[in-house]
Amino acid sequence: MALGFFSRLKQGLSRSTQKLGGGLSGMFTRRRLDDEALEELEDLLITADLGPAVAERVIESFRRSRFGTEVTDDEIRATLADEIARILEPVAQPFEPDPAHKPHVVLVVGVNGVGKTTTIGKMARFFTEQGRKVMLVAGDTFRAAAVEQLQIWGERTHCPVIAGPPGADAAGLAFEALTRARAEGAELVFMDTAGRLHNKSALMEELAKIIRVMRKFDETAPHSVLLVLDATTGQNAMEQVRVFRELVNVTGLVVTKLDGSAKGGIVVALADAFGLPVHAVGVGEQAEDLRPFDARDYARGLVGLADAPVAG
């Protein structure tokens, strides 16, 4: 399964790989790693959305270890994959519910269109297949389509869905869900939320109210706040992290739609800038295309290395 997912990861990252790996192939057939070559490589890393800070760090590492030597594109690829993996490894933390909390309450946030509802559905499937009892809450009450979509995922995964009429009070749904979850022995509650970032003050007020109501029931809730980001937005994802961290205590990230983007380097920039756990990445429409994040596989897929070790 792990090897199969690496193949899908590589396929999903193909646009990013073409941008970064294709640039490396054109730049380094066999070439001395001098100042000019390093400057070109730095520009390539920045345009591949790894960001200036990561690019500078990688270039300094190359300057210390390989400056003045002749290198091939394969050697650069392998070294670059190692450098990227080193940045990603501290944040590659699969999401694991805390058994001390029953239910473990997960608030899922993000702007409209990033794939919050689909991510919740895919995570629900992942945990129900592990035998966990999961409940879903349709807290994006202003979007009928989001409520309907979550109800469809509930049917697919055999998870109860707490939903109300259009425009229902999301905080009231949260309290109903936590009450039912405890009564029914649910282990995990995933709550969808609105993503109307254009009205930041209203969104902040709504999220704060949801959390206040949750804490009347359980003073430690929510136990996780997952921010879902769409890779196709590239550097805009950095700003979304900054904004949502002002609104709520974001505890981890899920990055979706990598298959539709040439901006896979943004995951590296996010890891370097914020150090937030990256729990999962999405590389396709299928439920199994959202998988726990593996730093080494991702780094090798991003630079276009063909082989990858089979993860356990």
UniProtKB/TrEMBL annotation:
Top EC group: hydrolase
GO terms classed as biological process: SRP-dependent cotranslational protein targeting to membrane
Keywords: Cell membrane, Cytoplasm, GTP-binding, Hydrolase, Membrane, Nucleotide-binding, Receptor
UniProt signal peptide: none
Principal cellular location given in the protein's record: membrane
AAA+ ATPase domain segment(s): 102-253
Binding site for GTP: 110-117, 192-196, 256-259
MF terms (GO), sorted A to Z: GTP binding; GTPase activity; signal recognition particle binding
Membrane topology according to the record: Peripheral membrane protein
SRP54-type proteins GTP-binding domain sequence ranges: 103-304
Entry superkingdom: Bacteria
Family annotation (InterPro entries): AAA+_ATPase, P-loop_NTPase, Signal_recog_particl_SRP54_hlx, SR_rcpt_FtsY, SRP/SRP_N, SRP54_GTPase_dom, SRP54_N_sf
Keyword Nucleotide-binding applies: yes
Protein location: Cell inner membrane; Cell membrane; Cytoplasm
EC number(s) recorded for this UniProt protein: 3.6.5.4
Reaction catalysis annotation: GTP + H2O = GDP + phosphate + H(+)
NCBIfam families in the record: ftsY (TIGR00064)
Function: Involved in targeting and insertion of nascent membrane proteins into the cytoplasmic membrane. Acts as a receptor for the complex formed by the signal recognition particle (SRP) and the ribosome-nascent chain (RNC). Interaction with SRP-RNC leads to the transfer of the RNC complex to the Sec translocase for insertion into the membrane, the hydrolysis of GTP by both Ffh and FtsY, and the dissociation of the SRP-FtsY complex into the individual components.
Family: Belongs to the GTP-binding SRP family. FtsY subfamily.
Quaternary organization: Part of the signal recognition particle protein translocation system, which is composed of SRP and FtsY. SRP is a ribonucleoprotein composed of Ffh and a 4.5S RNA molecule.
Protein name, UniProt field: Signal recognition particle receptor FtsY
Species whose genome carries this gene: Acetobacter garciniae
